[in-house]
Predict the 3D structure of the following.
Amino acid sequence: MASEVELYPSSDELPHDPDPTDPYWQESIFFFWWDDASGIGAIHRIGHEPNASSPSTNCWNGVFTRDGSRFRRYERPEFDPRDRLETGLAAGPSRYTCDEAWRFRLSDPDCELDLHWSEDFVGLAHMYPKSSMGDVHADYAPQHYEAAGRVRGTARLGGTTYEVDALAYRDHSWGRREWPTLLAHRYLGGTVGPELTFCTLGWLGIDGRISQFGLIVRGGVFEYAESVDYVTYLELDGTSHRGGRVSFNMPGGEVITLEPRLIDAVLHEHGGEGGAALSAVDSICTLEYEGLQGFGNLEITNNAKNGSDRVRAVTRAVSENGLSRRDG
């Protein structure tokens, strides 16, 4: 029920003071959106790791269109204290601010975005239940909220400009994050509008323990699933996918099944010595619920090598920076 879900104040939209004693302290925002009418959407992350042995920022951007245009901009520049803005975070070409309104901008010769959050369906909710996710909170996301709603603004991809009116989903987290504690996971977050927002995470930790949760929000009412069943249509590369099926087994016997269908995806790797502690595929997918059109990010990792090697091939996600075209 709603009383089980912690809600954060609007002041937590702003940056937080790092804990100088924790080398794993980080702060990040994660944001994805899809405009079905214009046929364009994207995935973004800004992360700061000021206390790491090599202090760095983290910049993920993947922008996709229904007709096959795609753009990737990933970089991990050295941490610059000036990127901790008074009202937001910056990394590389990306900038998030929350002055009078939540705003995200990206400036690149091949892609420009200027988007503002215009409507809330679900706001600033700590959706992860501590009872079922255990060490996720201690080592990966101790302070964390997610929100769903709508963004509006403009997007330019190559030589084409779009007016954006999109469904959107975002999170903001800060505190300890040990990337190598995650071996594999399945995540689906997204929305169709006020009628349904969903968030689920299945997690395989380095200790071999599997944890999961699922949360459904309908008309502002929060309800946790008793269990969640994940099916991912994994490609031969063992890394990318073409969609899947996620079933939320709700109290009382109701089953809510969502079938995300892939538009496009982006590969990002992070951390690790000689490899990548995290090799994540984030995807923009469309889906339906009771006749309503929605979207989500079916995010997966498969990290059996535990950061000792990098991904060798990826067939259904963009893995190189710049503009490109999707085949098929």
The radius of gyration is 18 Å. The chain has one domain: 2-325. Helices lie at 130-133, 135-139. The chain has a mean pLDDT of 91.
